[in-house]
Design a protein that fits this description.
Arc Repressor Mutant, subunit A; 9 helices; Beta-Lactamase; 2 domains; disordered C terminus; 44% helix; 6-stranded antiparallel sheet; 3-stranded antiparallel sheet; single chain
C-alpha cells in the first residue's frame, strides 16, 4: 500500500468518504450504513455526519441523513470554470431539437464517464441523466470513445484494473471484449452501444477533440425501438459528428478540425 505524505489529513479524506457514500440509488443512509460504507466505527461516522449536518452539507431526517443542495457548492466552481460545457450546450440543444432525442457531453474521470452537459429528450427514459451523472466507462459508448483517446500505458492500466459485471444479457463479459470495442472505437472514430447498460436504450458517441487530444465525447441516447443500429449510423451519426466538430471549433479554434 502506498505510504501517505506527511501533510495528509486523514479526517478530510473521511469527510469526503462520508459525502461520496450517498448516491442516486442510496440518497438516504443511516449511521450504521455510513459506518459500513466508509469503514468507520458508528461513533466516528456519527461525528462526521453531525459535523457535516452542522455545516449544511447534510440534513438529518429521523434516523437517516441525506445530502442538501449546499453539497453542490463543492463542484460548482469546477463546472463554472470548465468552459467546454458552456460551449457545447447550444450545439447539443440544436441537435436535441433536430433529432428529438437526448444529447450529452461527457468526460472521463477515473473509471467513469461524467456528464458535464445534457439536453434531455421529452420522451422519458428509465435512466435519469443529469449533469454529474456517472456511469462505468466500459459500459457506455462515450466511455469507449474516451478510453480510446488514452495513452497506451493508461489504457492498459485501466484494462488491468477494471471490474466488469453484466447489467443486461447484452453487456460485455470480459476485458478482451472491451479491448476489442475500444480498438474499434479508435479505428472508426465512434462507438455505439445497445442495451448493455439498460435494456431498451441505445447510445452513440463521437470524440470532441482539441488538436489531437480527445477532451470529451458527444453522445446521443435513444430508445432502441426508435431506430435500428443501421438507421442510427446513417441518420444520427453524421449529425452527431457535425455537432462534435462545431463544439471543437468553438472550444479551440480551426486546428481542432484536423
Amino acid at each position: 500500500m502506498e505510504e501517505q505524505a506527511a501533510y495528509f489529513v486523514k479526517s478530510v479524506e473521511k469527510a469526503f468518504d462520508v459525502l461520496l457514500a450517498f448516491s442516486p440509488e442510496h440518497p438516504q443512509l443511516t449511521v450504521s450504513q455510513i459506518a459500513a460504507r466508509t469503514d468507520m466505527t458508528r461513533a466516528s461516522a456519527r461525528r462526521f455526519l453531525m459535523t457535516l449536518a452542522d455545516l449544511g452539507y447534510l440534513r438529518a431526517d429521523g434516523p437517516t441523513f441525506e445530502l442538501t443542495a449546499r453539497s453542490l457548492d463543492i463542484g460548482r466552481s469546477y463546472l463554472t470554470g470548465l468552459t467546454l460545457p458552456g460551449v457545447a450546450e447550444p450545439h447539443l440543444k440544436a441537435l436535441a431539437s433536430t433529432l428529438n432525442e437526448t444529447t450529452a457531453l461527457c468526460i472521463l474521470d477515473g473509471p467513469d464517464v461524467v456528464y458535464v452537459a445534457c439536453v434531455p429528450s421529452p420522451r422519458l427514459l428509465r435512466i435519469s441523466i443529469t449533469v454529474g451523472t456517472r456511469f462505468p466507462a466500459w459500459a457506455t459508448s462515450m466511455g469507449r470513445v474516451l478510453l480510446g483517446g488514452l495513452p497506451e500505458p493508461d489504457l492498459e492500466k485501466y484494462l488491468q484494473t477494471v471490474q466488469i459485471h453484466r447489467y443486461t444479457n447484452r453487456s460485455l463479459s470480459d476485458v478482451e471484449q472491451l479491448r476489442a470495442e475500444v480498438k474499434a472505437a479508435q479505428d472508426k472514430g465512434w462507438s455505439m452501444v445497445a442495451e448493455e447498460l439498460e435494456e431498451g436504450l441505445r447510445g452513440v458517441a463521437v470524440p470532441v477533440r482539441r488538436g489531437s487530444e480527445i477532451v470529451a465525447a458527444a453522445n446521443v441516447s435513444l430508445q432502441t425501438h426508435r431506430a435500428s443500429s443501421t438507421e442510427v449510423e446513417k441518420t444520427v451519426l453524421p449529425q452527431l459528428k457535425q455537432t462534435a466538430g462545431k463544439i471543437a471549433l468553438d472550444y479551440s479554434g480551426p486546428a481542432s478540425r484536423h
